[in-house]
Write a structure and sequence with these properties.
Helices cover about 75% and strands about 0% of the residues. It contains two helices and no strands.
Length: about 80
């Protein structure tokens, strides 16, 4: 059986991975934006940035981290 500290660590890891996935997706969009502008010779005002709802994996990892934090909090009360 895992204790509250383990659940807290897992919650932190899942939040960090969720943020990393979202950041890498935004970085990919920025790189594609620069590549399109250089190759076409025209410039858009800004890239079409994805929202948090566009990446299902990031949302799932965020939800898993919330579950782990909830389990850590409920495990401390026992």
């Amino acid at each position: 059986m895992m204790n509250a500290k383990t659940y807290t660590i897992l919650g932190c890891v899942f939040i960090l991975v969720s943020g990393l996935i979202f950041t890498l997706e935004r970085l990919r969009v920025a790189i594609v934006f620069v590549g399109e502008n250089v190759s076409q010779g025209s410039f858009r005002a800004s890239p079409l940035s994805p929202s948090i709802a566009d990446n299902l994996v990031s949302i799932i990892f965020l939800a898993i981290s919330i579950v782990f934090f909830y389990k850590a909090k409920s495990g401390e009360k026992r």
